[in-house]
Amino acid sequence: MNPTLSQRAQKLTSSVIREILKITERPEVISFAGGLPSPDTFPVERVLAATQTILTTAPTPALQYGPTEGYLQLREWIAARHSTGSVRIDPADVLVTTGSQQALDLLGKTLIDSGSRVLVETPTYLGALQAFSLSEPTYVSVPSDEHGPQLEMLTKEDLSGARFMYCLPNFQNPTGRRIPLARREQLAKVAVEAGLLVVEDDPYGALSYSGDALPTLKSMMPENVVYLGSFSKVLTPGLRVGYLIAPQALHRKLVQAKQAADLHTPSFTQRIVYECVKDGFLDTHIPTIRELYRQRCQVMLEAMQEHFPKGVSWNRPEGGMFIWVNLPTGMDSVELLQKAIAENVAFVPGAPFFANEPQRNTLRLSFVTVPPERIQRGIAALGALIERESVG
Ligand code: PMP
């Protein structure tokens, strides 16, 4: 039997990163490819204790269907955490999702028609492109520099009628860059003036190495922003608990779309997350993640300084999990990857992170899952390879 696939399904392709990850599972490969958080940070004891408490004290609601919007106490906790001096988040605006990836999927389904204009950074998160592309938008790639999107490059035509702009202000996947305050203010001004909806995807916001935080776009223009958060990078991704905070009219539609997708995020995992975080656990846990990531980032930057040849440039992230590399012009990182894998080193080529015209001489390095000695070895091998390729 050969089923006739929908046109949408025919256009689906597998995530390039997931395909690469399969190859890099071989233990001899030093992989800077995965976007996975470090398992050294998983609070196993805490999750075990939470699970035991829940199954002892509230087994029925934990194992029963629940409301589509999510577990009320978790929604209240999320709302309180995102309420600032000037902006109060109402728990009614929170929708708990099955990872923030589901929030991206629901936003695609509720906001994009075939041909709708969607503004994205250059480059941007590949998983968002995958989620949105099912609805066949026309992407407008906003030119971006090390401080994020360059809004003055947008024309009135780009802005008018665009369904939303997708933006990652903190330690972006894939570049690791953070949008500074002035650029955030400029973005808020442009969005409010143009009546533009902004999707603010923020799974790495808590992972600033120094612990400082810049105001969210949500706090600057609450009515214009759908904020996406996640417990994947601060607790564990396997629980699949994320959330969105949306203005009411859109929230209602997102709830309906979620009902169609999976009825609700698992009652059990939502309660585990709430039980883990309710007493301020993250206030002591997150600093340990930041410190581990800061150290590994430092090790990688020092190794790159030592081993990467002239003509290669990269950024120095202030948080998060990624470093973005520009190879000499003309070099193609997809071709480089084939040769790197033969030498047991892996990274993710930059091209799939571009919605339109790819910059093929770019790549993403993730440092958080690799111990320091392997970071040094892997970067030395990669540096030698790039040197050989740029001479050759
Ligand atoms: N947004 C960004 C920018 C990400 O990097 C990721 C995870 N790689 C996600 C969303 C999805 O995360 P999750 O579904 O685990 O919350």
- The spatial strand order of the largest sheet comes to 2-10-9-8-7-3-4
Largest sheet: 7 strands, mixed
Q: What's the helical proportion of residues?
A: 40-55%
First-last Cα distance: 50 Å
Unreliable spans: none
Mean pLDDT: 95
Which ligands occur here? Answer: 4'-deoxy-4'-aminopyridoxal-5'-phosphate
Highlighted features:
392 residues; alpha/beta; 15 helices; transferase
How does this model look, in words?
The protein has helices spanning 7-11, 16-24, 44-57, 59-63, 72-82, 99-111, 126-133, 156-159, 181-194, 217-220, 248-262, 267-277, 281-307, 333-342, 372-391; strands at residues 30-31, 94-97, 117-121, 138-142, 144-145, 148-149, 164-167, 198-201, 225-230, 242-245, 313-314, 322-326, 345-346, 348-349, 362-366. The chain is an alpha/beta fold and 392 residues long. The strands form 4 sheets. Strands 2-10-9-8-7-3-4 form a 7-stranded mixed sheet, sandwiched between helices. Helix 3 packs across helix 12 (267-277), helix 6 runs parallel beside helix 7 and helix 6 crosses helix 11. The longest helix has 27 residues, at 281-307. Bound molecules: 4'-deoxy-4'-aminopyridoxal-5'-phosphate. 4'-deoxy-4'-aminopyridoxal-5'-phosphate is lined by residues 35, 99-101, 125, 127, 168, 173, 201, 203, 230, 232, 237, 242. Residues 35, 99-101, 125, 127, 168, 173, 201, 203, 230, 232, 237, 242 line the site of 4'-deoxy-4'-aminopyridoxal-5'-phosphate.
What's the short version?
With 392 residues, the chain is an alpha/beta fold.
